[in-house]
Records
---
Amino acid sequence: MDKLIGKTINDRYIITEIVGVGGMAVVYKAFDKVVNRVVAVKVLKEEFMSDAQFRRRFINESKAITMLSQNNIVDVYDVCLEGDMMYLVMEYIDGVTLKEYLDKVKVLDWHEAAFYIKQILKAMSHAHERGIVHRDLKPHNIMLLRDGTIKVTDFGIAKLSKFETQTITDKAIGSVHYISPEQASGDRTDEKTDIYAVGVMLYEMITGTLPFEADSAVSVALMQVQAQPKLPREINSSIPEGIEEITIKAMMKDPALRYASASAMFNDIVSVENDPDTVFGYLNTVPDSLQDELNVDNSPTRFVDIMGDTDTDAQNESDEDITEEQSDQESDETESKFKEIWLPIICGVGSALLIVALVVAGIVYFPEIKNMITNSNNVVEKVIVDNYVGKNYDQVEKENSSGLVFEKTNMLSDEPEGTIISQEPEAGAEVDKGSIVSFKVSMGVETVQIPDVTNKYYEIAIDELYDLGIMYKTKYIASDTIKENYVIRTDPAAFTEIKSDTSITVYISSGKEIVTVTVPDVLKRTEADAVEKLATESLVADKLYEYDETVPNGCVISQNPASGTKVDEGSTVEITISLGPKPAEDDPIDENPDVTPGTDPDTDPDTNPDNDPDTDPDTDPDTDPDTNPDDNPASGDGQEDDQTDDKDSVSYKLTVDLSQFSSKTSVSLTISTNDNSWNKVENITMANLAGANYIYNSETVMLKKGTIISLYVDGTLFNTYTVS
């Protein structure tokens, strides 16, 4: 198991699995826990960390790809080029490589092939405009999404150096089929190197075969330099002639004969799509020597036989079963074949080069020879090139009367569509009449309309943006109306047309905004006052009731949470409200007051006259003074109870010092008792009390001893008093 699986890089990227292995790097699937998305992490292999050349190439790729932002190029989110590990964090592509797709379907309909190639060309045009050449374009480095979108990856990381070109092995077979002749020869490479690779991929798509195949990478590389492929229509006759011409022009051995730009090749494909009968005549302009090669059968068998002997020599040197005599014999055969086949070719090429050199020298140093060759005795009319930059190309071409020939190459630009961006030769140059002036003309800006993803779950919304190639960043904000993790809005807004390389912001709901408040002190306040006080802080009262000897009836005994506690807005505060002192329980009615508790009146002789032998059964309780209370003058007829009530009640007058409220104009006084025997509400004007030194005297009332009086000033408990 790979040691990075399950690890977290930079305390952010959780590595989950390997999704690809290349020559220099391993690509992992990972989860970015900071922004909650799946990403791809490309890590430089550990064995290359100490190799300056490989580190430099990885750094070059990092610099190159971070300069690019286009729908058909994989996005890069993060780069680490220091420390014990070098890695790139890129968007995770849920698809297959174009190579896997081609292996499955073999031959593509030319319309489908054109659809994919155009996307690759758009990516290359974007890169080339920024001075970046891929140099390793091949189906293995191109991802195909389920909706048909193409994503180009691996910019620059697999660039073949001169050393690698000279020592190509079978391990390089995946790349060597798509390298340009100049790459195979170790020569300088530029944008046309990528165009050659695109031509090879188009050839493979429409024919189902590669243009050059052999048993070794070396053989294939030599064929890229020396051999010509079969014409695509010889393999698949259903291909339009225009598509065949586009393919062969892109694959010309001489870079000068290829398309000048990716945009030029793109435009030709569009022309054939609009009219499949379009013919460009590119094959008619191929030099006769190359035309002859195009018409011969370039079966790789004969080529491989030549190269195969060289490969066999290398293999036989390590084979103990082959004798030295056999090795010498094969070496002689190889030398013989070299003399027979290659020596005449080399001599012929040398002679041709010598003749060309002599002709060029004659033209340069002997003007009369030049005149003989070019018929330049006739006077050639000269033309001054106007400045066409900034003008509309169609209008310039329509009004052209200069005798110059115009040709254009379209490219994406911020300039309006059809505007000439640059010209060659530049304005003011003196050229022969009939000369070609090349223009780069704006195709306009590639735009996309932002979809309406409001109220969609954020993962669904992001997938929709991703499918349209819209770059985005997310931001969470509180919302009282949109559910958590659902999209609130986008910036720019939905249905806005934006450039394809513009990044938008997606605002996602984090739920309702959590506001904290401080719990107020409501102890000893009246029930209504406490509820109102909590409500002003957006808190809800949960009321309980219980008896209490010290807190007046209707006032708060306790609260939970306590005052000063920080809680979320809308939280519940539990308040316990006093019911006053617990009332005394009434004694149970004794139906037999003379019966001793715990005895049965039916069996106890002291209570049952039938069981008492001393009791006269003929005695009438109604006439017996001992049993009839009405005949007993000492009973008092209940007067004793009235006297007891008088003793328990006293006259009471409440006197209160209100001087601490002298700054107020008036106050509201509320008087209540625990037995509700005295309840009073009175508004007092403080000016009326000033003469009495702010002393308030209530009226005199009769109250039972022990009664608890509660006095509230402006709704707040001021004091309690006990009647004695």
---
Amino acid sequence: MSSFDFAIANQLAQGLASLLLAVLLWLFLRSRRQRYLLQLALSFSALTVSLIGGAVSLALSQHGDPLGLPRQLFSLVALTALPPHLIWLWLGIHGGIRLKSFRIRREPQRIIAGACAGLLLALLAGWLAARGLTGPAHGVRYAIPYLLGGATYIALSLVMFRARSQATEFQISPLVAVLSFGAYGLHLVYSAGLTTWMVVQETFLPHSQYVGLVGLLLLMTIALSSVIWLLETEQRRVSSARDQARAAERRLLYFRTHDPATGLPNRRQMQDLLGREILNLRDKPESQIGILALGLHRFKVVSEAMGWRQTEDLVRKLTRRIRDRQPQRFLLGRTGERDFLILMPDIRRRERAIAHATSILKHVRQPFKHNGHELVLKASGGLSFAPDDATTAADLIQYAERAQIQAAAGGDDLLLHRSRTDQPEPRDMLQVESELRRAHKRKQFKLFYQPLISIRQRCIIGFEALLRWEHPERGLLSPAYFLQDASALGVLDELEEQLFDSAVAQLADWHADLALSPVTVSINVSPQRFVQPDLPDRLSEICARHGVSPEFVNLEITENSAISDFEAGLETIGRLRERGIKVSLDDFGTGYSALAHLQRLKVDYVKLDRSFITGIEGDDRQLALTHAIVELIHSLDMQVVAEGVETREQLGYMIKCRVDFVQGFLLGKPLPAAAYRDMLEKRHITAF
């Protein structure tokens, strides 16, 4: 075999080694869709084309017409593929080191520009060869690409070395990758100098044929270290995602049970703690439990005057003041902006509880210093006791809060819940049922629509359909006023059937208007309707009747309804998605399900509860929690919707947290469909 044949075979072998690495990268990409894997796969695919094209071009130059069209075409392909290989390689290595996408501005345009630069080199080399300038032609065809590739590989080895030096644990593959990338870069630089020397001196150095063999060995080392590096990277990513999920779940559990501003237990936690204390009463028949509901007066006026941040500081000072006054065994919780609960366990006499409550209320009324002025907060309280007043936590809290409201209305400092005579009389349910059915028959139930905004596109991509009752006497009523009664009386199924049909009909009208871009519609479904087996078929029938593709329909289910019968919920979600209907998990973060459930549910969208957004402007912990939850949901190939966005600051934080879609009063209130006709034509949202 001649030296030229050996060089051709060597370069062809390098191309096959590069092809093997490209195939492995494409296989990695199928199992784990990461942008840096795509960039690396494209990079080594381009290198394969460049090496094999160069080998064929070299073979044709030795065993065919050096100036022939086939040889020029393969040379053109080889040089055109080289710059995209280097650009994609740079992006992929950076993305792999950071375990996230690495982009540059106008990436496709830069790839095309690189390919055009390689094309110009090939054309220049062909033009020089056609005029008999063999030396310069070889320099353009080989020396310049070798030098460019060598500089890129050396720079990447330095980048990887810096990243490895900052790692907290030792790994062998990054070290091998650093050495192999650096050595391959030096090999390419040496090859550029060697080629230039032989062309200028018009001589052939015998060892030059073995330089390519070194390149082959180094390229195989790069392939091996890259595969090991990718495996270790995936292992680190999985481990990091697992740790983040556990930390996020712990933080989510904390924020579900605590007030974010003060760190006090919230209503849910207080109710749970009270329930446990009630169970302990069985062993203490002579003991009682007191619940003090404490409400601040004129809190809204104070909040508007001071601003949100200073008001929260004031609440924290008030919290410390109450804790200083109450006995250590008492437990303080915050159940609203202006509302607190104090759990008084093991009370022997009511007089002691009343004395403690009176002392706390008196202490609350002492002036606060604010900007050189004295600020007085007045409060009223309500007391209830277990087991005399009730034996359930929810009833005890309700009675204490009702007594507090009555105390505030009557100008009293403290009132006790003494009997059940102050409860409102139960409504005539037959009359309520008749009123609901009459409203349904007369089409008093209407759909209002709130826009769903894509952060990436900055335009409306869909609407959430919201049910309202246009009551002839009480005006426009939200579902909170009638949904529970409708469910208890068996009217809800008929209302939801009307909701489904009206929403899809409106969607069909939007799609029939050629001046509007296609939008989606989100429909809320009750837990009772969600468990009914005919739901997927019924929705498919409604879509078919109105001529609407099911892919534009999104069904919203609550977290609790999804896990109440988990296996049945999984089956229903699967059947809905088989028919093309999207599924959203609504109010995520308000139920009791663990984050582990989310992976099995396999919904399309997750809607963060508005509690993730409220107060995020002044709480770095809440911002970190929200960002971690969004990243976790994205890792499960689901998209995130943030609802309740009411200020530009909240919108900015949601963009920072990388949510996909937002909705809220800042971007559009629930209105009739006709109100959004002009906005749909313009599409662009001014809030951005």
